[in-house]
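Journal club prep, notes for RB
We'll compare a predicted complex against what the paper describes. Inputs for the fe (ii) ion case:
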Amino acid sequence: MLASKELISAINTQVGNEFGASLQYVSIASHFAGEALTGLARFFYRQAEEEREHAMKFVQFVVDAGGQLEIPAVAAPKSTFATAKEAVQAALEWEQEVTQQIYGLVNIAKKDSNYIAIRFLDWFVTEQFEEVNTMSELLQVVERAGEDGLLHVEEFLAREPGFADPHAEGGE
Ligand SMILES: [Fe+2]
Ligand SMILES: [Fe+2]
């Protein structure tokens, strides 16, 4: 096995966290879709897809490392949001939490001197840097626009290449 039991177990937990993030973003996206804020809805549906991809990367690692995949129960996402700010704030806090979770995985890999795992996890460290930045920028834009000015946020999302389609810039 290419990873310790402790690391495999922690990665299994992370598979649940990533699927949990995916569900949370589906929930946020549907909130915005219900408000006819299609740009925000599209942005969060796409985030949901990305979180699923993250979960699958961890799944692949467990399988490749010869570990036992054990997907934990995933908590129900928050389903109602009073304001756009509340929804985006929750997303930012989630990304900050995930960043700490990834650091926790890196700490285990380092303790194990597992250089394969450290290299694998590097991608997620960079990804979190981007996701926290993106989400805090979006929160700033939402705050500046105000709840009555969310159409400005829609325009921003359509205009900014990194938000309109992150993959267009070669990002993930
Ligand atoms: Fe993620
Ligand atoms: Fe994320």
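Talking point for the session: The CA atoms of residues 10 and 105 lie 7 Å apart.
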